[in-house]
Amino acid sequence: NLELRTFEDVNFSNDFESCPVIIPKIMITEIADPVNATSARFIELFNAGEHEIDLQGWKLNKYLNGSESPSSGGLDLSGHTLLPGAFLIIANTGYSELFNDIPKIETTYISGNGDDAFELVDGSNTRIDIYGIIGEDGTNTNWEYLDGRAVRKPTINNPNIIFNSSEWTVFSKASNDLISNPNSPKTAPNDYNPNL
Description:
Helices cover about 5% and strands about 25% of the residues. The protein has one helix at about 95-100; strands at about 25-30, 40-45, 55, 60-65, 75, 80, 85-90, 105, 115-120, 125-130, 150, 170. A hairpin with a 5-residue loop joins strand 9 (about 115-120) and strand 10.
């Protein structure tokens, strides 16, 4: 316990300044499931804020086929920082060769096949952003991205802890009228634009 005897105990002798409250604005901006290369699947994160964000303790959680628990306990993002306006690509092992680009994180964890939800959480396990509905298989829903891609609309400048399909443009091979672009499979690398 901290005991204050008098107000003199909290009387500062030197100048001090208040520290700003930094609210991270790290967003999931693209989820890719190329029809021609499952090993080139990737997820793009973007720092839409004005401050550099240290991702120590942060995780990207994947929820497979309607699961309510993150696969393998989530993907640890520790060791990475994101400058304002910067992207972070997390990709499967075939991404580098196909896209001629080196992802910040290369892992087989990125294997979403069009019906899997993704959640971004900070070091206190607080949700920052999400794509899809946890506990719901994405097949035949308004967020199915089978053999295609889901791209955050450029007018969206903040993450959202509640999934809102209106924030996304979704392309899929599936004949699914609930998404914006059904019957629209996407081929890597030409149909994707990571880091943009």
